[in-house]
Specification:
Domain Major facilitator superfamily (MFS) profile: 22-476
Keywords: Cell membrane, Membrane, Transmembrane, Transmembrane helix, Transport
Strand content: under 5%
Shape: globular
CATH class of the largest domain: Mainly Alpha
Helix content: over 70%
GO molecular function: transmembrane transporter activity
Oligomer: single chain
Protein name: Drug resistance transporter, EmrB/QacA subfamily
CATH topology of the largest domain: Growth Hormone, Chain: A
Largest sheet: none
Number of strands: 0
Pfam families: MFS_1
Length: 480
Amino acid sequence: MSTTAAPPIVSATTPDSRRWWVLAAVTTAQLMIGLDLTIMNIALPSVQRSLDLSDPSRQWVITIFALGYGGLLLLGGRLSDLMGRRRSLIIGLTGFAVASAIGGAAAGPTMLLTARGLQGVFGALLTPSILAALADAFPLPAERGKAFGIYAAAIGSSSGLGVVLGGVLTSFLDWRWCMYVNLPIAVAATAGVLYAVRPTPRTSGIRVDITGALLATAGLMALVYGFAHAESNGWGSRSTVGALTAGALGLAAFALVQSRVKGPLLPPRVVLDRRRAGSYLAVLCLAVGMFAALFFLTFYLQNVLGYSPIRAGLAFLPVTAGLLAGIRVVSPLLMRAPVRALLCPGLLAMAAGLLLLGFVRVETGYWLHVFPVLLLVGLGTGWMLVSANSTATFGAGADTSVAGATVMTSQQIGASLGTALLSTIAGTAAASYLRTHPAAADAATVHGLNVASLGAAGFLCAAAALVFLLVGPQNARADR
């Protein structure tokens, strides 16, 4: 059996001859992870019937993946440095594929939930390695913007594609194919990694900060859990308050430990860099608006406008169009624009989309009112993903994996926070409307959506101002 020789190690300033194959391989791997964040959503009713899941257990099919993924990203970044990026990519892809096969063959709830948790764990190992490999392969500014633009297009469109693919597979095959579909994707990505990603030596002297890893993982998992369940359990419930308090205390202790130990999991220098700090804050705030908008519109299209799951999934395709437009515009600017001029427009575009969503009505038509919202959401997302990932990883050196992992951690926290907080605001506003209009259920739902969307638009405008001040007036570019 013949094997392909590993690509030779090249210098940091010499373009890798296989760099575009690297881009294809790692983008495919991240696309697989992005699909799995949403592909099971529409399949949940079928999963519940097939495996006899209880209503409380049903939500764990989604939540346990987010917990494993969001909670372990920082540790995954450090392990990537310890093992070497090529090795961690192969381990992550293999583990993700095996977990997907177990999930597809699940005979009961425990088997499926275990598989989903393992997908999150191996996804957390994959993402930091993906970003580090991409940053290594494209050190030159002239190509860096284009490469990160293609990568951002894939991960930005993965959520909408996951919804569509989940609906198609569930409707025409079986929900189990929402898990099995990862197998050919993982095989293709692994082949690409073996062919194109050059081996990197294990970084000497790196220690895994066990205390920091435990505190970060526990703190992030507690926060994600608390935010994810705040809407269903209530913000004042014992479980929500306990989880959020434990998360905040865990992360405070983590920050203290990182400033005192040798070889910290998240070196303070990473977040104390104003450009990176601005990127992390911008991504967190953008995710608050992005995931809340997509969440609200999913229910609006299906429950108010009466769209089928597949039609609702297809209705989200303008997000991809807007995303591609945002990427196309911002990618050339990475070489010459100040960092805050890269980060703030993405937040403002998302704010504009949420502002329009605040004026949607029950009788609103798709093309005149929903379509522009989706375009603006995509535009802001594409603009931000390219800017933040490039800014956070460029020049990070030995911290590249952790710097990239922190971007995705910020996104996961923002997604959980936004969906929980804004859903609670929308639910409260809808309940108040129903008390004065008891026969207008659809109108109450839309009223709640309006109130939450307008609040989110204001929040994102404030976030843009804060990022502008945090990054400062320096002319440093994202590619320096």
